[in-house]
Amino acid sequence: MDLKEVKGSEVEEMKTCSDCHTTRTPLWRSGPAGPKSLCNACGIKYNKKRRQLLGLDKGRSVSKKKRKISKLMALGGKLREEEQAAILLMALSCGSVYA
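C-alpha cells predicted for GATA transcription factor 15:
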C-alpha cells in the first residue's frame, strides 16, 4: 500500500510495509505481495518462515558437520597422508578452514 504525501506542489508516494505498515526502513524486501513490499524486519521474518516451511533451513547440520571435521583434524598425527589430505579438502570445501 502506498500513501501519498504532499510537499509543496509535489506529490510523493510513501511506501508502507504490507505486514506492519511502517513507512521507514533501511531496506525494502520482497514478500508475498511482490518485490519491495515488506520492511527489512518483516522481510527477514518472512524469509526465515518460508525457508523453514520449505525445509531449506540447514543450520544445525552445518554446525554438526563442522564439529565432525574439526574432530577429525585434531587426529591429524594418527591418520595417513591421504586421509589428512581428504579431511583438509572437506574442511576447505565447507568453509570451516580458510587458506
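The mean pLDDT is 77.
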